[in-house]
Amino acid sequence: MMYLTISYKYNEYRINSRIEQLYQNNEKISLRIRDKIGEIEYKSTKAYKNRVLKEDQWLKNKGEKVIYLITEKKYDIYTKKTVEPEIENVIFSEEESTVSTMTIFEKWIFFLFGKDIR
Predict the structure, then answer these.
(1) d(CA 71, CA 64)
(2) Which of 16, 53, 96, 105 is deepest in the core (most CB within 10 A)?
(3) CB 80 within 8 A of CB 86
């Protein structure tokens, strides 16, 4: 009788704690949804679109003058993609070629004692 009571109370506690956890997760998700809806409404305004076009795409309205802070030559220096040099064929030394055919145990003996036991 005591076992049944304890097991029932334990299961009830687990269920209630899981329900509470789900309520908290729902509140966090609904808060994030409200924030994202506000962000979407802000991004759909004309002022935001105008600002983005001016910053990213250099849109110029009638009567506005564009001021370039750096020259195009300096801009190209920082935006150029560098080409990595190709790796040349490396000629292995005599020691590296002998080590490449050894087993791990033989390599350890060769590196520790300098003896080739093949």
Answers:
(1) 19
(2) 53
(3) no
